[in-house]
Amino acid sequence: NMQNNFVIFINMKKIFFIIIFTLSWVNISQAKVIDLYCEFIEGKAKQKDEIQNYSTTDYTVHQKFSEHFRGVRVKIDISKKKVLKISDEDIPPEDFKTIFNDDEIWFYWQELDTDFYVHYILNRYTGKLRKEMRQLTGNPKNDLYIVQVFNCLKAKQLF
Fold this sequence. Notes:
- The protein has helices at about 1-30, 65; strands at about 35-45, 50-55, 70-75, 80-85, 95-100, 105-110, 115-125, 130-135, 145-155.
- It is built from two helices and nine strands.
- Strands 1, 2, 3, 4, 5, 6, 7, 8 and 9 form a nine-stranded antiparallel β-sheet that branches.
């Protein structure tokens, strides 16, 4: 009887360690996805040597730029160091090139068969997101260049 109790105790101990090991492994392998909402703060655009500054309340700008005043949602998988989605872009996640460092996360791409470049720089301390777009025309004076700055916070659903 004593021997049976001892065997049961050893088997229970093994099961306990298997459960603990399994739970710790699941925790390690779980993805850490951060969902950010980034609100437009300021922006500048340059085309044909004209620089225009945009305030946060100016929604009556030329239609070409008006869509850039909306907030941006960014989903980042921190564990895989990969950008999953940017709400104002229709770019598949596999097309993003991503660079993580201690201070910033850079993500960018070039549209195929065009001279249009877009890159984002997210400051990991301040939450500021800088979006830079450039369309090369062959003459630097005629290039379209847009810089926008957003303030990002972790997205929370209000209702």
